[in-house]
Amino acid sequence: MSPSADDLAREAIREFQHLLAQSLRKIRHCLGQLKQEQIWWRPEPGLNSIGNLILHLSGNLNQWAVSGITGAHDARQREAEFQAEQSHNRDELLSLLEQSVERASAVFQTLSAADLLESRTIQGFSVSVLGAMAHTVPHFVGHTHQIIYLTRLQLGEKYQFDWSPDAERNGVPI
């Protein structure tokens, strides 16, 4: 028996939700190892801090996966995400990001196969709902790896790995 379009849609949605949840877990793990000044440290003046990346991830996820898909008002101030310095503490950043992931996941959960094919205009781009999801989730994963790198760069040998090949596998490592 071949899977239905709804079966495929549900599986794609589960995978997108899983990737967001795994990325959030990894970001939480990094933040737990850092001091406030390390969260806002920039390797060079023109580069982003972990704090900037978290603000950016939240803004992008809300713009593409929440407002973009549902048609809700988008109040994103993209440039402010990169200009912020010491504007939020660790708990505020984590709460902001967790709320963004929860909202996006809730939106994803409401979607049917037909919804995934509908067109939206987001940030001036015409995309399908599936295209919006396929944009924002890998974007989230990519910046998660930057956050891991910036954490490791600052902590060096003191960095505590979250997962190793010998550890129990809780989902697909990203």
TrEMBL record:
Domain of life from the UniProt record: Bacteria
Pfam family, one: DUF1572
Protein name: DinB superfamily protein
Organism: Gimesia chilikensis
